Sequence to fold (365 residues):
Amino acid sequence: MVSNSLMRIVAPCWRPSRGGEDSGKGGDVTGRVDGLLWYKDSGRHVNGEFSMAVIQANTVLEDHSRLDSGPLSSLDSGPQGTFVGIYDGHGGPEASRFVNERLFDNLKTIHGAEFTSENQGMSEDVITKAFLATEEEFLSLARKQWLRDSRVVLGRLERAFREVKAVQLSSEHNANFESVREELRRLHPNDPQIVVLKHKVWRVKGIIQVSRSIGDAYLKNVEFNRDPLLPKFRLDEPFHEPILKAEPSILVQRLHPEDQFLIFASDGLWEHLSNQEAVDIVNNSPRNGIARKLINAALQEAAKKREMRYSDLKKIEAGVRRHFHDDISVIVLFLDYSLISRSYIHGPSLSVMAGGGGVFANGGT
Fold:
């Protein structure tokens, strides 16, 4: 969410119109489809412009994403800004679809959402409550799905060098990072097997790489650690407190005139592009269609790694495609500091949701 001079990292059957390479202009709210690719090349949010794209690799698209711009609470007098969500599911789309549909609504309607921090920013307490409310709703459905990590990168102009540098704002909750393993050991001091190195990959309890999630009921409540859960996911020993948690890590980042844009993307993009490579592409390309261009760059790298032609990769059907790359969701927000720095922001409401269950859009651009 971008609101005034603060940005908070809170670290969607296709139904759009169809068109060719020159489509996806700002007036086309629903976006376009090209095979396994959905894209909305450009639009406006209350703080500037945006571009959005999704490519499917799995048999059923597991990524879900959304952008909401306008009121961030149920009250018109509440904060105005832009909310971006990239939800990368694995093991199925249920968790990412549910979070995509419910988290922002909870954020707007949770008790206390009308109360904001200084500078009209959404309070950290409201964000945390919205996450926990979404988690509680999801676990009540007794699903066994989970979300993976996504990342947000800021493009910041370094005037002295006349270059736009990449600044990673979010941190992945992944057991392969030493800091995450230390956190898990600190939270579970009596469990020497809380993180296990398995096939050269660190995993929580030898099962899963993420340390925080919405879903994963079997690692939060012992009643789900049984049939019909597959034996390979079950824990042999009982546990008395949640192994994973749903609380988000929240970063408050003050925006400056040098801050040019934000790249939100699921880990499918970052498997093939570095932070700086992605920032360079955005900085050196026209804004229109930039999210689609980032996806194409990642697919070209994926093809190169498999020593195949990009044109051949694009012919591979969903499902088989997952052996070459993951689902990828990208949203690029361009920042207009003259809008961000205003004491009061107001613009047309916009909501765009994309993912395995459909693409839906409301409002104007």
User: Anything to note?
Assistant: The longest helix spans residues 94-109. The CA atoms of residues 4 and 83 lie 13 Å apart. The longest strand covers residues 80-90.
